[in-house]
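Appendix B. One record, verbatim.
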Amino acid sequence: MPTARPLPPEASHGRWAVLVLAASLASLAGCDRSQGPDPTLVEYIDTLAAVDAHAHPMAWVAPGQPPDTDYDALPLSGIPSFQVPVGLRPDNPAYRIAQEALYHIDPTDTGSVYVEALDSARSATLKEKGTGFASWALDRAYIRYMLANRIAMGSGLPASRFGWIPFEDALMLPLDIRREAARTPDMQALYPLEAKLLARYLRDLGLTRIPSTLRGYERDVVAATLKKQKDAGAVGLKFEAAYLRSLDFEPADSGVAAAIYARYARGGVPTHQEYTTLENHLFRVIARDAGSLGLTIQIHVTEGFGSYYSERGSSPLLLESVFDDPSLRSTNFVITHGGWPRVRETLTLLNKPNVYTDISMMDLLAEPRMLVDALRLWLGEWPGKVLFGTDAFDGGAAQGWEQVAWVASRNARRALSVALDGMVDDGEITPARAREIARMVMRENALRAYHLSLP
C-alpha cells in the first residue's frame, strides 16, 4: 500500500488548488471560509489510499512486441470522428499539470520542445519502471487498488494492485448481428467487435459454434464463461450496452426467447425486436449467474461518445425493472459514471439495496461546481452508495492512462473535500463524520460493493 503522506507540492497546483476552489465553489458548498475548505480535511482526503472502482489501465508491452489491445471491448477509435467534452481533450491544461507532476518537465517549455521533453521523459520512465510502471502510476495517484475493465489482464498488472472486470455484452449476442450493426454508422464498427469477442470466448471454452438450444447456450457458454472468468480472478463484470442499444432490459418470456434462439442458431438474421427480446432475457441470466458467483455488475450509464449514441437510451431510470427484479437482489449493480449528467435519476435508484454508483469520468468531464453538487446530493442521502473511480483511459503520450488517473484522482479528492466541508459548515455532519464518509467514498464502499478484502 502506498505510504500515506501529504500530496507533493506540484499536486496542489492548477484549477483544483484549494484557493481556487474557495473562490469558485465556497458559496455552492455552503462554505464561508475565505481560504477554502478545512486544510486538515483536505490533507486527510489527499492521503487516503483509494480503491479506484473503474478504469482501463494498459498492460506492460516489451519493446518490439504488439500493442496492448485488450484494454476495452469497444474501443471507439473505429467509429466516425466525434467531438469530446473539454475535460477529456488532451490539450486541457489539467493534463499538462499531471505531466509536470509525474515526469518533472520544465513548466517553461512550450511547443515542440515540450512535446519532445514529455515523450522523452515518459519513454524513459516506462523503460526504467518496466512491469512496475502501472503500480508506480497508482502510487503517484494515491490509489491502492484499481478495478481494471479489460478483456483480459496482462503483464505489469499484478493481482495485488489490480482487480479484473471483464466485458459481457458479447454473451448477449449469440446470433447473426448484421441487422443490428446496420442501424447506425457507429454500430457498424462496434457490433463486429462484440462478435469477435464472443468468438474468443467460445475458443476459450473449446467450442467452434454456439449450442443449438438456448438452455445449452446458457449452460455451456454463459455460465461456463463467467465461471472461467471468476476462477481467473474476476471480481465483477462490465456491460457497455448503451453504445449498442437502450438500457431498457425489460423482462422477457423465456419460452419466446428460446424459440427465437432456436430459429436462428444455425442461420438467418433475427429482426431487431427478436434480438432485443433475446438480449433482455440473456442480460438477466448473466446478472443472475453473476450474483451466484459473487460478481458485481458495472453498467455504463452516462452521456455518450459517438455521433449516434442514444442519450435517451442511457437514462439510469431505464434500469429500474432490473434493480427491482427479486431474482437479482443477490447481485450488486454499479451505475458507472454516476449516470452523468442525470445525477438526480441516479439518486432515486440508490435506495435499492443492491445499487451503487461511482464518479468515474465525472471527475474528468463534469464542471467542478457540478461535481461538488452531485456529491452533496448523493452523500446527503446515501453516503454508503458512492464510490470513487477515475475511468483512466489511454490517449497516447500526451494523455496516458497514468495521467488521466492522476487528474481524476486530484479532481475527485478536491471536490470531495469541498462537498464534505460544506456539509460540516451547514451543520449536516460533524468533522469526524466527514472523515468517515471520505473513507467510505474513497475505498470502503467499493470494498463492500465488490465483496473485496484488501490488506
